[in-house]
Amino acid sequence: MNTINSPSSVDPVPPGGNPPHAPVKDEFIIQDAAAWVLRVGVILSVAVMILGLTISFIHAPPTVKEMRHVVFTTNPMLLYQGVIHGQGKSIIDLGLLLLVLTPITRVAVSVVLFAVVDHDWFYTWVTLAVLLLTLISLLFLH
């Protein structure tokens, strides 16, 4: 008789109703969600940057001199107007902004998952502090 699949070899469910290995499952949910946020963010940002690069070369290929003096647009209104008007450089800047926001989104998702799925308040508060410090540091970016 195979003892691996026998009912007696299965871990009993404690009186509270939660399986004994639930935190491990929750940990995998949090890790999987964080990994998916990073994957989707990187893929999306690269796709946007490739689109912007393609549009830039179709409209007016930049010279080497122009490429050396181009800076990242940090003004949200200028970025928005450039994207709406189909300017390749603004679309590339949007892709870079998405790339920067990807790990920040991952931290925000972790805050929610630590609170809702894992009910681990220590990690929730620590992760929330990391998120707030990161957002505050971005406000003072020049």
Give the topology, please.
Blueprint: H1 22-59, H2 64-68, H3 76-84, H4 88-118, H5 121-139
Helix pairs in contact: 1-4, 3-4, 4-5
In summary, what is this structure?
The chain has 142 residues and is mostly helical. Helices cover 72% and strands 0% of the residues.
Describe this structure as you would to a colleague:
It is a single chain. The protein is mainly α and 142 residues long. The protein has one domain (27-139). 72% of the residues lie in helices and 0% in strands. It is built from five helices and no strands. The chain has helices spanning 22-59, 64-68, 76-84, 88-118, 121-139. Helix 3 crosses helix 4 (88-118) and helix 4 (88-118) packs antiparallel against helix 5. The protein is elongated. The mean pLDDT is 83.
User: How many distinct domains?
Assistant: 1
Q: What is the distance, rounded to the nearest whole angstrom, between the alpha carbons of the first and last residues?
A: 70 Å
Instruction: Determine the fraction of residues in helical runs and give it as a percent range.
Output: over 70%
Largest sheet: none
Low-pLDDT residue spans:
none
SSE-based structural type? mainly alpha
H/E element order? HHHHH
Q: Outline, from the CA principal axes?
A: elongated
